[in-house]
Amino acid sequence: MKNNHSSLAAQYFCPFITRILLAFLILSSITAFAQQKWDIKFYNEVKGREVEIYADNNEHMPMSAMFDFKLNNMISTLANGKSVVIPARTKKFLLAKVKVIKADLGNSFSYTNTYNFGDVTASAHDDNLIYWLPFEKGKTKLIFQGYNGKFSHQNSAALDFSLEEGEKVFTARGGTVVEVEESNNRNCPDISCARFNNYILIMHSDGTFADYSHLKQNGSIVRPGSKVERGQHIGYSGSTGFSNGPHLHFSVFNNRIDGKRSYIKTKFRTSEQDAVLLEEKKRYTKNY
Fold this sequence. Notes:
Elements: H1 8-33, E1 40-47, E2 50-57, E3 63-72, E4 74-76, E5 83-86, E6 90-100, E7 108-117, E8 130-132, E9 140-145, E10 158-161, E11 168-170, E12 175-181, E13 187-188, E14 199-203, E15 209-213, E16 215-220, E17 227-228, E18 233-237, E19 241-242, E20 248-255, E21 261-264, E22 267-269, E23 276-277, E24 283-285
């Protein structure tokens, strides 16, 4: 059925905008269930024979989104399956334009989207970077679970340092604090307790993240948006979440749009060596 130009937006676009919003709400409910309550908003504006899709990102880090469009006599400037990165602290960031191809034919579109924190297109990490041990000067700590450890590090390049409850935690590398959780006070040696984890998430200049986990309740002294230097005191260790005792869990990773992490093994400066990959069941001293 043909429609004239003046009624195109009302008759074609309004129903589809409703469908788009429903798709977004479904995704939001899934996200909330996974405890990923990122402060990001997607919305649309109708302009003549096209719809512009925008995002407001209120987080202190980039967010990445991927769309799956269903198009009938319409074309999108953003291809299906292509990730787009929304800069941190950005309003009205244009994601895509969806345009009518033939004005005298019926048209429709809808979409679903997936999003995650970080720049999922970032892949460059200098493996020669030297990280600092995340505990106090003059102390020696055991790595009681290393990369791909059997208890909770399967397929994960993460390290567990033997910090006691309430010991100071220091940054291994400088960056921006992008997420802090410190309200929890529960733990158990089962994955079901992962939701009770306290942590500080720091984004580095190359787009990678460092995760400092199992902090004590109210154990962070930094807040999202804080700039931190390497070797800065940021919090206190604990045993919250998926844990069988006090320790500090540390990992560096790139994020992926599917919610999984690409972990990176990092070299540390110790009192014995200037650059070493830490190993499980070995002790390391910090003299700086």
